[in-house]
Amino acid sequence: MIKFLFFIGFFTFLFVPLTNNYADDVYFEVIKNDVSIGNESYYESELENDEEIIQQSDSEKEYSYEVENKENFEREERLKEETGSSAFLQNEEGINLRGDHLGTEANPFLAGTASELRNVLNTIRTDPGTGIYYVRLTNNIFYNASDVFDIHKNVVIDGQGFHMLYANNASTIASNTGFRIRTSGIEATLRNMNFGSDTLTDASGRVYDNNTYYGIIGSAGTTGIIFTAILENVNYHARTGAQPFLTWNQQSRFVFKGENTFTSRAGTSSQEFMEGYNVIFAEGSKTTIDHQTELHTGFFFAYGTGGSAGSDGRLRITVEENAEVHIISSKQNFTFGADVIFTIADSAKFFYQQAANRPLIFSNARSTTINIEKNAQATFLSHGRINSGGNVTFNVNEPDFIRFQNTGNTNGLFARNMAFNRLDGILGEVGDYQFYYLNQAQNLQRREVPGRVSQTLADNQFSHTALRQAVYQKGIQVTWDNVVDVGIGKSELLTKIDSYEPARRILTKVDYKLSTERLWSGDSITSDSAQAAIDQATLDTSGVVAAEKSTNLSWHNGQLRAGTYYVYVQVAAAVNDDPQMQLFASESLWEEKQITIDRSPIHVEVPLQKLFDIRESGTFYKIEHSQPIISHSNFPIDFSVTYVANYSANPTIALVDHITEANEEDHLLLNIGATDGQKLGPLVIGENKLDAMVLQPFLTDPLELFLKGEFSGSIFKKHEVDFRLTYTLSAKGDED
């Protein structure tokens, strides 16, 4: 026991203290018939009929290509007879194209008209080299259905920001026009180029928004040519003939690099975004596609049998690392005609919004596998319940988040069950990933997804049958600590969050709780029951001494009594500042740390001397002369008087423990009282064994002491007394 003794004498006072208008067109039209999808579910007979119609219409497209290709071939032969086949072809003005421009990257071929571009590419065709050849546009290229820019070797065509402007009165179904790849195995890059325009106009005042549904680059209807087309910093704008890409070879590829924008609107012959089997959004690229056309049923349409010997016939969509893809589509299906392997790679971002008041349907009738990798983001917005005509499997491996939302007016989120396989984490362990959704009362709910398990995406897997939105996201992981600072008059705790992951999240809330008792029971704090118990604890809960909700990464508590405490922390953060996503801010699990607040040194300000006056016999109570006794320690202290000595020079008063009426001597019954009702006494000369007075720490209103008691005797004579008291201070409950 720590004990302090003080000797005092009375009577000495001491106190230590977008919309456009267009002209009508005259055109010859060969289109692929549509089958509108009126329901979210498919019947087999309807699917077969749909495919038959598409096969028939694409046969028409093939026939159109063969006729046109024959005409262009004959035109080419006549041109050769007129100009010869020399490698040093001349343009229409007679300028030698090989003179100073050798087709290297440092010294590229130049072309400022359609004829110059044709001749440059013919020069490259007949050159004995293999490339890569470089071409640079020097002006906008105006061309029509008869202009074919044949590509026979690896080439990079840099548009320098100029436009390829297809005549508004040209055919929307011309197959042999624009950039056409003629040799299998080559790679053609179109860079820094605009196709069409939403601002440049022709002589009639119409913006250049016409194109052909055989695409801006490809091998048209030739199925045997395998090529790679790279689009880098390309913009595309079309209302008629709006289909940017087509290949009927299963091994050809379209690769997007840099920043690309494609805008397509409903009009004559406006169809899919791409016919083909392989599309790659390259690492670090950013592609924005606003494709709102009506004809045909797939955004990505796998059609054609070319190259099938070296292909498994699957449609592959790949968003490479750190690439961003933003799509708005009115097509009835995201994909059509083949099984799909869709990969969103590490840290990539994919956004898909279904327009035209239609639900998102992943495939018309084939299986779809969607792989979402580490830190990737994926958003699927559907005007209605998300559906597919074939099985859908999500394989997720540490993504940042996956968002599903029904933006329509009907309830429900998933129209069919979809497999959801979590590939990361420790088998069965929770806390890393959750689904967040709003229940019927619009309160945020969380459904844990354990590590390395397979679950089902279905409305009945959530507690809200009218589910409209769910976000699967990475749980917040918190690094935090506590710092205790104890001294004389100081007993503080600083809880500090050092960091949280993912660090790019926007902090929305931090919950702190401090308790002298553990707030949960059971085997694991990560269990649902334990988390709920902590979450529901309030200041009215036994043991809870403080709680706070804030956005501060630190929390200070002062004037804490010595003892054991449990500190609880939970952090919530949103993936971005979108108000919709703010509603689904993910939360860390409640975490707990046990800390100890040690005892500070005993430090008490005691009023060592008291002054009192007695003017008449009887009971006296001198609270007006009270003096504060202040503890600067962080724990309760027992304060007591253990010994009283009489040092009076001429003792005239005796201290007694009671007053009797028969007593004729001068007696004093003396107590030390406290403003909270406690007292020490009666005091007697010599050893005193009294119940201690308890001094509580950190009182808002300090405890004050005063003398109280009763005097019996003469008040007509002067009494000079010198009583000396020994005080004892010790930690409450300590024993000698």
Query: Strand share of the residues?
Result: 35-45%
> Which segments are poorly predicted (pLDDT under 50) over 5 or more consecutive residues?
1-56, 70-100, 611-615
User: Helical percent range?
Assistant: under 10%
Distance between the termini: 6 Å
Mean pLDDT: 87
Largest sheet: 24 strands, mixed
Round the Cα radius of gyration to an integer and report it: 44 Å
Please state the overall shape, judged from the principal axes of the Cα atoms. Answer: rod-shaped
**Number of helical runs?**
4
Structural class: mainly beta
Q: Report the count of strand segments.
A: 51
Q: How would you sum up this structure, described in words?
A:
The chain is mainly β. Among the domains are: 341-474, no CATH class; 478-597, Immunoglobulin-like; 604-731. The chain is built from four helices and 51 strands. It has a 24-stranded mixed beta sheet that branches. The longest helix is centred in the N-terminal third of the chain and has 40 residues, at 44-83. The chain is rod-shaped and about 140 Å long. The model is unreliable at 1-56, 70-100 and 611-615 (pLDDT under 50).
SSE inventory with pairings:
Elements: E1 4-9, H1 44-83, E2 109-111, H2 114-126, E3 133-137, E4 141-143, E5 148-151, E6 155-158, E7 163-166, E8 178-181, E9 186-195, E10 217-218, E11 227-238, E12 245-246, E13 253-257, E14 259-265, E15 274-275, E16 278-281, E17 286-292, E18 298-301, E19 315-319, E20 324-329, E21 333-336, E22 340-344, E23 349-354, E24 368-372, E25 377-382, E26 392-396, E27 401-406, E28 418-422, E29 433-438, E30 444-448, E31 454-457, E32 469-474, E33 477-487, E34 490-501, E35 506-515, H3 528-536, E36 544-550, E37 554-557, E38 563-574, H4 579-582, E39 586-587, E40 591-597, E41 604-605, E42 618-621, E43 627-631, E44 637-646, E45 654-655, E46 667-674, E47 679-680, E48 686-687, E49 693-695, E50 703-712, E51 723-731
Parallel strand pairs: 2-3, 3-6, 4-7, 5-8, 6-9, 7-9, 8-10, 9-11, 11-13, 11-14, 12-15, 13-16, 14-17, 15-18, 16-19, 17-20, 18-21, 19-22, 20-23, 22-24, 23-25, 24-26, 25-27, 26-28, 45-46
Antiparallel strand pairs: 1-51, 27-32, 28-31, 29-30, 29-32, 33-34, 34-37, 35-36, 35-38, 38-39, 38-40, 41-43, 42-50, 43-50, 44-48, 44-49, 44-51, 46-47, 46-50
